[in-house]
Specification:
This protein is α/β, with parallel strands linked by helices and 239 residues long. The protein has helices at residues 11-31, 34-43, 53-64, 78-86, 110-121, 124-137, 146-157, 172-176, 178-185, 196-201, 219-237; strands at 67-71, 89-93, 160-163, 166-169, 190-193, 212-216. The structure holds fe (ii) ion.
Length: 239
C-alpha cells in the first residue's frame, strides 16, 4: 500500500483549530469522561495549531499499536472505514471546518477526528474494542448492520457514560462539537440507558441535533456491547 503523506495545514487552518480549542476546552474538561481527559494528555495535542501528524502517528503507534492514515475523503463509506479500523488504521481527514461552522458541522473534520477521537484511541482497552467492533461489523452487509451503525453513533460518537456516579460525555462527537455538547447536556435532550432494542428502532441523522441520547453504565458495558449485538442479531435472524 502506498502511504499517503500527511497534509501540511496552513496558518489560516491552524487559526480555526485555535478558535475551536478556545471555544471547547473548558467545557470539555468539565464534562468529559476521564478516558478522554487522560488521553488528551497522553497524545499531547497543542492548543494553537493542528498537530504534526507524523509525530502523532508515531505517538499512537507507541501507545496502542495503531497508525493514522490520511484521507481526502470527508465522510468515509462504512465499509472502507471498518476495513481500516480492522487493520488498526484510523483515518484522519485533511479538511477543517470553516469559521462559520465552529459550533457544529455535520461533516467530520480534522478537529473532530483528532480532538474528538484520538484521546480515546490512546487507550489500549478502547482501541482494542474499536478493532473488535470493526471485525464484527465486516461480517455483516451494510443493510444487516444498520442498527450496529446506530450503536456506534450513540456510543462512540454521541454516548454518555456514568463514572463515579456522574454522567460524563463519552462520544467523540460531543467532545469535538461545542454546540452539540451544550445541547446534549440540556434538558431538551432526553438521556436514556443504553439499549440494543432502541438501536434497532432509531435512525441517527448527522444533519440535526439529537433529541435522545444514550448513557452507558460502564466501560465494561461498552466492551461487551458488540458481542451482545451480534448474539442478539443471530438470535433474531435464526429460525
Ligand atoms: Fe467520528
Amino acid at each position: 500500500m502506498t502511504v499517503r503523506p500527511f497534509k501540511k495545514f496552513s496558518p489560516a487552518e491552524d487559526r480555526i483549530w485555535k478558535l475551536l480549542w478556545e471555544k471547547q476546552i473548558l467545557e470539555a474538561r468539565k464534562h468529559a469522561s476521564e478516558l478522554w481527559l487522560e488521553g488528551l494528555d497522553l497524545i499531547g495535542l497543542q492548543y494553537d495549531r493542528i498537530p504534526d501528524f507524523n509525530q502523532l502517528n508515531q505517538r499512537l503507534k507507541e501507545l496502542v499499536g495503531w497508525e493514522l492514515v490520511s484521507t481526502d475523503v470527508i465522510f468515509s463509506d462504512g465499509q472502507d472505514w471498518f476495513e481500516h479500523l480492522a487493520r488498526r488504521q484510523f483515518l484522519v481527514t485533511e479538511y477543517i471546518r470553516e469559521e462559520k461552522d465552529l459550533a457544529y458541522t455535520p461533516l467530520p473534520d480534522i478537529w473532530h477526528d483528532t480532538f474528538g477521537h484520538l484521546p480515546f484511541m490512546a487507550h489500549q482497552r478502547y482501541a482494542d474494542y474499536i478493532e473488535r467492533f470493526a471485525h464484527h461489523a465486516l461480517k455483516f452487509t451494510k443493510d444487516q448492520r444498520k442498527s450496529l451503525g446506530s450503536m456506534w453513533w450513540y456510543t462512540i460518537e454521541f454516548g454518555f457514560m456514568v463514572e463515579y456516579g456522574e454522567m460524563k460525555a463519552f462520544g467523540a462527537g460531543l467532545m469535538s462539537s461545542p454546540g452539540e455538547l451544550q445541547q446534549a447536556l440540556s434538558d431538551d435532550v432526553q438521556k436514556i440507558p443504553y439499549s440494543l432494542e432502541e438501536f434497532d428502532r432509531i435512525s441517527p441523522s448527522p444533519h440535526e441535533m439529537h433529541k435522545k441520547l444514550f448513557v452507558l453504565d460502564s466501560m465494561e458495558q461498552l466492551e461487551n456491547s458488540v458481542e451482545e449485538w451480534v448474539a442478539r442479531y443471530e438470535r433474531l435472524h435464526t429460525f
